[in-house]
Amino acid sequence: MADDAFTVLNDRRAVLAERALVAWLRECASATPDTRPCASPEEAAALVAPVLEGLLARAAEFHARLDRWIALALRPVRDRVACAKSCATCCRHYVCSVEPFEHLRLYAALRETPGFAAALERAALNERRFAPLWERAERAAAAEAVEETGKPEHDDLFYDGLLQRYYELRLPCPVFSAAAGTCGRHDARPASCRLYFALDDPKFCEPENLRAGAGRGFLLELPDAVEEAIGEWSGRLEGLDLGDRMADALLRLNVLDGILFGATSACCGTPGAPSSSSPPRSTPSRG
């Protein structure tokens, strides 16, 4: 599939509409009851609904195109890939490197499921357990701070160790369905859940074996043109302040639920800010 198959996701009308939506949401978040930019939930819904509907449709199209690209990329090794629907070993990783439009699609999909409230509870638990791991990693990094800057160095080893320690907690992803034994919204999962593949028995993906380097796997890297198209789209939505961590973003979107999805009065709240004990919302990017 040609790399430019993804660039159509940044058409001019979408660019203008999404920029206007993000600006309006930021105005909503900072407004007082007397200065709210919308007089009623109905007026807010009329502004938000068509833009959000288009965004979610293009996010679904992005994932469909991504799946087709992955299928082509895997052809040389397809018979060696051990990943299967019945395996949920990876569903205990801390999901990060998620794009804003993917957060929105996943949240919208989860809202339509009976397990929505439980997913938010798991997201809150994931964040509570991740925060102290981040703090511990920060202290360790600070002890070996780079002399030139005096600041902790957040390199690949820092993130690898942090995410490995979280994986060893064996906490299920917020979207994981224990009843089904698989992802509760597999169709809406982010790219970071779609691009990694194992070549050995799933037992080698268990935390203890992964730490020992016993299993073989690989991460598909997207072409530069595709990454650029993704970066352009995500940059447009940066003002939503969702970060790149799935669990954290689900909780933040729940605060915005009334504005985005019309479940409560418009402009009913401010996007949640991380507490003093929360780690910065920045984790390693793909590749």
Describe this structure in words.
- The chain has one domain (3-261).
- A hairpin with a 4-residue loop joins strand 1 (176-177) and strand 2.
- The strands form two sheets. The chain has a two-stranded antiparallel sheet with strand order 1-2. A two-stranded antiparallel ribbon has the order 3-4.
- The protein has helices at residues 12-30, 41-73, 100-111, 116-143, 156-167, 207-212, 224-236, 246-255, 257-261, and strands at 176-177, 182-183, 196-198, 217-219.
- It is mostly helical.
- It has nine helices and four strands; from the N terminus they run H-H-H-H-H-E-E-E-H-E-H-H-H.
Index terms:
single chain, mainly alpha, 4 strands, globular
The order of strands across the largest sheet is 1-2
Helix percentage range:
40-55%
Rounded mean pLDDT score = 81
The number of distinct helices, counting runs of at least 4 residues, comes to 9
Beta percentage is under 5%
Biggest pleated-sheet summary: 2 strands, antiparallel
Number of domains: 1
Structural class: mainly alpha
End-to-end gap: 20 Å
> What is the H/E order?
HHHHHEEEHEHHH
Short description:
By secondary structure, the protein is mainly alpha-helical. The chain is 48% helix and 3% strand.
Topology, element by element:
Layout: H1 12-30, H2 41-73, H3 100-111, H4 116-143, H5 156-167, E1 176-177, E2 182-183, E3 196-198, H6 207-212, E4 217-219, H7 224-236, H8 246-255, H9 257-261
Antiparallel strand pairs: 1-2, 3-4
